[in-house]
Specification:
The chain is built from 12 helices and 3 strands. By secondary structure, it is mainly alpha-helical. The chain is globular.
Amino acid sequence: MTETPDLSGKFAAAPAPHGRPIKRGSASAQIHDALRERIIALEFAPGAFLSRSEIATYYGVSQTPVRDAMMRLEEEGLLIIYPQSKTLVSKIDVAHAQETQFLRLSIELEVTRRLAQESAADRIGRARTCLSLQRAALESGDLDEFGRLDREYHGALYEAAGVANLWQIVTARSGHIDRLRKLNLPDPGKSTSILSCHDRILKAIESGDVPGVEAVVREHLSGTLAQVPKITEKYPEYF
């Protein structure tokens, strides 16, 4: 039986988030984003215990914004809150990941189809920049930055299609699939496959190749779920 990780004291020893204090009036949102980032990065592993009081001390705030941030993370399926007891990082839910992937594929097919139909080369500059930065991150061995840029790349496509708010909806549901991707990313060939798909998606959009972009999106978004048996066998304590 795997022992539940205890992160007590982890915040006290950590540097301030991004070297910036919490801004007045937005503490809950900032704490939510910071905790979510660390959960997705598996810095806070599935099953880990989080202390509301230590988090509040770390950020220099009262426990109220921490509580609000945690409740929002619970709604997203990333935390399990036991009232008057403890808060744990949720285990990875494969069924939830599959549902989210179905939603994302449905939306992203339409996003890229629209961009290709409009040959929207003039609107995908940000996505192209993300791809260039991803290549640089891979060359430097920074897989955390590579993963962050992966999400930014896809968000840029939604923005280019004029549906940026839908990316926020997808992101809020993507905690489980994003953690699966984090576990899958170090596998040989995975990062180069991502770069190849990202490049081919942009080229298909630029050339107006609707069938081509749809095929690449299906290929791209199916990769991680196809590796679930391998991932769960390698990291059983996370599920």
